[in-house]
Fold each of these.
Amino acid sequence: MLRHVLPEVEVQRRSRATGSEPYIRSYVFMRRVVGWLAFVLPPLLVLGEPLVFDDRPFPLGSLSAYHHSGFREVFVGFLCAIGVFLVIYKWPERTRESRVSTYAGAAVIVVALFPTGKPGARVATTPLQDLIGQEWVEAVHFGFAGVFIFLLSRISRYWARNRPQRRRLHRVCELVILAALALAILEGATDWPDYGILVAEFAAVWAFAISWLATVERDPRPAV
């Protein structure tokens, strides 16, 4: 089963056909935008939300908890934008690495649409939580969040194998993502350490954003 998750060592070079330059520039621009969306999202939620809505606690216990904050639309919008791009940008290739990206994109869209549990009694439940139960919605959220973070590590692992000029950077990012996943699981199981899930989500998203942007800036070939 893991062979369908672990990517192949395979890279296809960009076309150099006449007239392809505008499409390549558009592709590279979209990749940069997605990388910067991922990089900006954690500090925007943690620092920006209390500046706009100063009656909120600072910080919340996880990035996912900002689904119940005044920045709900920012949280959902950013995740969906990133997810849609991950799903479609290598879709026609039908390689293992493209499937990893597609699965990661689909998983993060589910994370955006299925909120975590309420961060306090004063927060109202969502219609989806009222429909199928808060516990079920939260279970779906955390399950797909774990899948998403794990698949991000697989993408960085693929880049580490195939981009020798940045191999160490991608390898470090992969290990940070896996360590972040372990930290999130630890707090989820033991309620320790405080803000462990927040730190884990912050670290995983930033590590992937750094790995992603490094491939866009330094490698002329499309990745994953």
Note: The helical segments are 21-52, 72-88, 96-113, 127-132, 134-162, 167-190, 196-218.
Amino acid sequence: MSKTAPRRRVATYNIHKGVRGTGPAKRLEIHALKGGVAHLDADLVCLQEVRAHHHGDARRFHRHWPNRPQADFLAPDGYEVAYRSNAFTRGGEHGNALLSRFPLLDVAHRDVSDHRLEQRGLLHATVDWAGAPLHVLVLHLGLFHGSRVRQVDALGDYLQEKVPAGERLLVAGDFNDWREQLDPAMQGLDLRRAGMARTFPARAPLFALDRVYLRGLSALGSEVPRGAPWVRMSDHLPLLVELEAQ
């Protein structure tokens, strides 16, 4: 591995739609999240549960609700944004996003919903990493183990179809894998996990639900920001990984 190989930082973060709490205690956290994303100083920020819009929350927080989609609002100056909706509800829609310090070459989406009660999808963005393509897939897997297994199978089908075998690949997101059962299936796709840091629940993390898997890249280290204000902004903590090209 070359000592001069470029190093980058990637973050994955489930932002819980930019709000916390329920009923009268519901509060808007999207402005704090904007500062949190900037503080991460990651070259690639993979986000889940990102609102495109929501009429009810926009009315409730009308004085402070952003006047643009959350992905665009959260992006630091100079970052490019890729977003695709996964779930369409009565009040609005939400999905996955990538905020990239590097140019986006292409953006695609694949529906991987396993049943009608959970709408799930893959966001696929190709970025320019030091003159070579890097494929970044952002996902949020289902709540049931059988669904997650089938969604990893769908991921494998998608990679075989859309991602050339010799090109670098990064898959990040909320895997909802409470019992640590998905690593063998991901290894079967030639994807290696970058660390095992606990990120959920934010106040007292017990589970490593938020993950980064790599092909053609090496993980030099990982970290999870803790304490205030992170415990307020989402029920997940962000995961940061430092990367180096092989």
Note: The helical segments are 30-40, 55-60, 70-74, 145-162, 183-188, 230-233.
Amino acid sequence: MSRIIFVPQYPTPNRYQEWWFSKLPYEFEKAGFEVLTLGMEYAEMMSCRRGDIAHFAPVRMAIEFETEQVREYSALKMNENDILFLADISFPGIFCSALYHYQPPRMFAFCHATSINILDYFEGLSWSKFPVERANSLLFEKVFVGSQYHKDKLQWSNTEVTYLPFPPFKTFKNETKIYDIVSASRPTKQKVDSELENLVEGKFGKIVRKDTYSWEEYYQFLGQSKVLLISAHEDTFGYQIVDAILNGCIPIARNSLAYPELLAREYLYNDKNELFGLLDRALWGLLPLPKLKCEKEMKNFYKNIIKTMKGN
């Protein structure tokens, strides 16, 4: 039996790092692998919390967590059939340095984002950080990414588009809607176009934003809402679109980034006039709840990754 050495991200509450921590090992075990998760005991000891930017790992604690994973990895006795799976190649990025010195025969990784994302936390360091990320990517047999948009932007030779899996949570499709237009994006320049959203508020009224501290709260908020407005300048996948549709809320997003891979053209806007027209239609009930264009790929996420790892 092959063993997967699973290297998860710091399990930040209310982000996918939290549920990938247990979901990916579970799917690997179902497929017949033995799984060793690095950092498991350390994570249980830590008080996992959000960072200064809502929903992100505190930088110091994420570094401590990944450093502990390096320590555990260095103490391993490697088997000839071992496979390593790194849940995020980019942040903090310490673990990859250990792989230059000690590595199993086969290695795979997922890349959620990199320092070349515009307006990202690390964008200012991209001149030095991205060449390191690109060099680290060459260590792996495959680097899985969440969209063709991300693959095209990275220009790495070994990427494979798998999209992302459906979140494993209870959903809330409420017939009674409390809110008209909502935003679930973190309030940064990367995720919110303030100028555009101010224009929307001038025409349609307040865009409702609500701090939520659990997946259930977040999903209930979407279930109570008619329209989710997405005005981000960067997004390598678009989980908000998935979350909105699962909870009966109509997502409207830019006609760019990875969004055209998830939504039909009638839910995408190129400018404010097109956006205003879409919002009018949605609020009057003339725009039905969309279907995800990548639904099949999301349902097959684990199967496709495992197939690649098994060499089929």
Note: The chain has twelve helices and eleven strands.
Amino acid sequence: MPASRRSSLPATFRMINPVIILVEPQLAENIGMVARAMANFSLSELRLVAPRNGWPKKGAHSAASGATHVLEKARLFETAREAIADLNFVFATTARERGQMKRVFSPDAAMADARQRLADGQGVGILFGRERTGLENDEISLADAIITFPVDAQFSSLNLAQAVLLVAYEWRKQEGAALPFSGDRRSPPAERQTVTSFFDYLEAELEAVNFYPPDKRPIMARNMRDIFHRLEMTEQDVRTLRGAIRALAEGRRLRKP
């Protein structure tokens, strides 16, 4: 596929998501995993700058694990300058301080800024560099600001797809996206009368087996009630616990000679 220049955005077109731009990516698998990370978090526009050995690459689609729509729409460019030509604001990602007088953003702050710019009608892109060496200083100089990551200084190297994933995740968070499922309990919280009835039953059964030492019953009963209160039991919790205690008590009585 020959390299192509993307035309300027029409005046009526409004970009709704930031563009992910990979500069001279080397491995097909990394490009595929980038596409997967993008699709996970609702990003779809991928631009490739002079990928090594051309494009498309064998192995990219399998690594994308179904995110083939991102790869199929990917645009190819000869230089980073061409890839960002139609954008209004560009972030460059780097793990190292490059001595350039640019604003430096964390991924979450950068995506908050990107959201506002996109809402104002600007086109926003994020440059990611080569797997081994990252972006060159001249490429970073094309950007308006830098995104860097709070990595361990002793091991700051990020895989290309990991770096895209971190940014894409923060973008998705800015959308206020809900979790796909919640841990909310289906059973409602137990009513007080249900809980106190359970306590009465439990304490009676413990009394029947002489669980309480002499003169310790009141304080031990209160401590045990506090344990169950901290659980914030649901109606189902109380029914399950009461049923388990009943099974133990009835089994004990049946075993008596």
Note: The chain has ten helices and seven strands.
